[in-house]
DNA sequence: ATGAAAGCGCTAACAC
DNA sequence: GTGTTAGCGCTTTCAT
């Protein structure tokens, strides 16, 4: 079922059929109707592959996330998908499973089949990313790279607020559980350090840990051994792991120890007690990055090549005042 | 950078270059090397779109999931991606956000760009699915449909075991929180009903509920009002919602009420207490479905067109013996 | 073992 | 407004 079959049946040229499906307004209403009818009868639909080849663009966007099972990634994907659809692009998702090699492979496989590529918190080398950016328009999130447009979720300030919050509750001994190296961890760490310096606290920094639940379970005992009254975790998964292990050891949260997460994923409201956490605007980041990518692909360059999205401390049940027993 | 550039540089015909990248063994080692060198120097890589058009297959597989943020979907995707890569296919993921229209749209958009399509727990009409299956090889999970190969996660037996487990713990008043209609809910409901009948119990069936955390929060009060001592939820998200609301209302689990989930997602081990749940083999389902799809696409038809994967009750901390106060 | 030539299905100038 | 004519970049007979 090709454009020629439809053309023959409608008694027009293939070009006209093509126009009906690409720029309907340029063909006379009568002809258009005849073509559409013929197409309908033949159950014809344009072949997107052939179309991509001829147009030299695919109408597809690609996104590579570190881990599809991670709900932070999921929020970004959802937002990106919505923006993409809105602009009539299809979005292809692939996951790197946190492996640098996979990430590179996925990105390279995707690159020639899409008009633009969104890399979220990429781990690949600068050189590799630049090479990709030579092949296809690339936008990254949470990664600083010359000449590649980026959307950053800046959390230094909000993480600082978390420290102030703990300080106000009377906490003087605070631990930070670092995540994998990258923009996110740096932003969180620097915000925490700065606030601590301001308040005269000396944080205990542990890690780096993989950004997973199991890391939190493991870290819980280290935190307890460190003798702190409050702990700030790189993300909610780690914080949830802490909660579980604390519960197992009979340590009450927040009475005996306060816990702060990062990301404000769905998990934060699912655990007991609900997590105080730094809300990272994942959906906004996904949407902004996708819009940026689309503008980039289309050539309507807005000039802005870097967005910093602010975060916000959300106070819930996992933080509370220091009690006598805490120390 | 096309095949012709490489051909010119290597002093061979375009056909030879093509062969080097498609069937290397058919070209003399010397020539092959020259071509590869030329390609390297020109940083040439075959254009997958052109290749797809000429070969009339894309080397891509597509998967449509109801909700990318759902960790059950995530497990299936991970397994599918692994199988796909193993067979040298790229996997494109799209989500329907639980909307039937979206599902249909996503599937139709994907269909002409892939060699095969995997639809997980599809909600679309039989007619729509069959239409898709006419365009492209389709495999479904958790959906029964004539002439479309399927992988089913059968849970009637394991859900029955959950009921037996509760019965053995002394529970006589049991509620079931139904999920959205479909194969999964039917399989779970029928297993539950059968076991109850066998044991002389009369379950209170509530719902259907959307398979989300918030549904569980809402359902918790209904469950309490129903006066049961145990509740089986359609999935872990709902069960987690129950746990949270019970905690808020000061109802202790499992001392005052026992909770059973379904799926055995990561969440089941993240909540307090850890969820007793029916393990559904999501990864196995994803892997099996993908293998089936690949065989189907390749034409090596094994004859088997339907797989039923068994589930298993995992006992954890959210179920316990009935106590005097329970009733 | 390699090359020439004819497409794959669609688009895009350019005519008319 | 519509048709003609070249491709888009690669594969694949069919010769040689």
From TrEMBL, chains A, B:
<dbReference type="InterPro" id="IPR010982">
    <property type="entry name" value="Lambda_DNA-bd_dom_sf"/>
</dbReference>
<dbReference type="InterPro" id="IPR046335">
    <property type="entry name" value="LacI/GalR-like_sensor"/>
</dbReference>
<keyword id="KW-0804">Transcription</keyword>
<keyword id="KW-0805">Transcription regulation</keyword>
<keyword id="KW-0238">DNA-binding</keyword>
<dbReference type="Pfam" id="PF00356">
    <property type="entry name" value="LacI"/>
</dbReference>
<dbReference type="GO" id="GO:0003677">
    <property type="term" value="F:DNA binding"/>
</dbReference>
<dbReference type="InterPro" id="IPR000843">
    <property type="entry name" value="HTH_LacI"/>
</dbReference>
<keyword id="KW-0678">Repressor</keyword>
<dbReference type="InterPro" id="IPR028082">
    <property type="entry name" value="Peripla_BP_I"/>
</dbReference>
<protein>
    <submittedName>
        <fullName>LacI family DNA-binding transcriptional regulator</fullName>
    </submittedName>
</protein>
<feature type="domain" description="HTH lacI-type">
    <location>
        <begin position="1"/>
        <end position="55"/>
    </location>
</feature>
<dbReference type="Pfam" id="PF13377">
    <property type="entry name" value="Peripla_BP_3"/>
</dbReference>
